[in-house]
Amino acid sequence: MKHRKKIFFLAILALIFIALFIFLGINKGNWDYALPKRSLKVLGIVLIGGSIAFSSIIFQTITNNRILTPSVLGLDWLYMFIQTFIVFLLGSTNIIVMNDNINFILSVGLMIIFSILLYKMLFKKEQKDIFFLLLVGLIFGTLFQSTSSFIQMLIDPNEFLVIQDKMFASFNNINTEILTISIITIILVIAYIYKYIKVFDVMSLGKEQAINLGVDYEKIAKRILIVVAILVSVSTALVGPITFLGILVVNLAYEFLKTYKHKYLIIGSILISIIALVGGQLIIERFINFDTTISVIINFVGGLYFIHLLLKEKNA
Predict the structure, then answer these.
(1) What compartments host this protein (predicted)?
(2) In-domain check, residue 26
(3) With contact defined as beta carbons under 8 Å apart, do 70 and 56 qualify?
(4) Residue among 209, 202, 198, 178 at smallest CA distance from 79
(5) How many structural domains does the chain have?
(6) Considering only Cβ atoms within 10 Å of each terminal Cβ, which end of the chain, N or C, has fewer?
(7) Domain encompassing residue 7
(8) From residue 198, how far is each of 61, 262, 299 by CA, in Å?
């Protein structure tokens, strides 16, 4: 099957799941209530799935490693640290906490600053390699997580509830208040990154090969890291941290499409992500009556797949 036919197949499958999610069980009695609510929810899931898949695949391209996600840099926990620190410093009734759009813009701005500083530490000097990236990422992730936990023990229990809503991934409680600014952000990111799609094919060969072929590697890597930080902000602000979804969908896209071309891989991984999230949420809501959450299933399956990838790399 050619790449275009595979993409078309995934697109049809994604549309079927979206249609089932919106219209299954709907009738004249609940049409006015259920249709807008389900439409906003599925729109949020599509944005989350697209952001995670897109950020994961371009992050794996610049690191030239297929078992990494942006979570390794501690970006998810940085977002949670920002939320915790704002509530601790200003209180839960401050406009920065109450207004989701202002909170989102502030968080994205701080994560971009962090990404620029991280770039200067990791990529500016040639002797820094992937192991240094993992080490610094683990240290920052642990630092942000520990500091957030410490601050949460100091704040008022009522204000802690505000933070608790953001700590755990829940597709039953997507933050639809920031859907508009999320859509605008993603459109701007796609428009900005589109010109680099073909360059990603060269960068996936590795840093030295890409530089030899004329790619300004450091300049593009810095810009990609900023884009990754923005996309992680969008997905985390909408639903909360999800660790293994990126690894799962990107590697499935590689296995299914069997290509190195990012124009297919990016679209394919986004569609697989949408199928997994919308299909999973459909099964949980309509067939098993919320007995579990999709984030638990994703982290369980993704964790197993991560171990499989590690063993596969070890035996290669």
Answers:
(1) Cell membrane
(2) no
(3) yes
(4) 178
(5) 1
(6) C
(7) 3-14+34-311
(8) 12, 7, 32
**CATH number of the domain that residue 253 is part of:** 1.10.3470.10
Tokens of 290: 């919320």
Rounded CA-CA distance 268/265 in Å is 5
CA pair distance 90, 93, nearest whole angstrom? 8
φ, ψ at 302 (rounded to 5°): -65, -40
DSSP letter for 99, please: -
**Tokens 């080490």, located at residue:** 135
Residues 272/253, Cβ–Cβ less than 8 Å:
yes
DSSP 177: G
Residues 6 or more apart in contact with residue 142 via CB below 8 angstroms: 74
- The pLDDT tens digits along the chain (316 residues) read 688 899 999 999 999 999 999 988 888 777 888 888 888 889 988 988 898 899 889 888 888 877 778 877 777 788 888 888 888 888 777 777 777 788 888 888 887 787 777 777 666 555 556 667 667 777 888 888 888 888 888 888 777 777 776 666 667 777 777 888 888 888 998 888 888 888 988 988 888 888 888 888 878 887 888 888 888 888 887 877 777 788 888 888 988 988 888 899 999 999 999 998 898 888 888 887 776 777 777 777 777 777 777 777 666 6
Are 265 and 203 a contacting pair, CB within 8 Å? no
Dist CA 6 CA 257 (whole Å): 7
Which tokens hold the place of 265? Answer: 């891989």
Whether 45 is in a domain gets the answer yes
Q: How far apart are CA 56 and CA 119, in angstroms?
A: 17
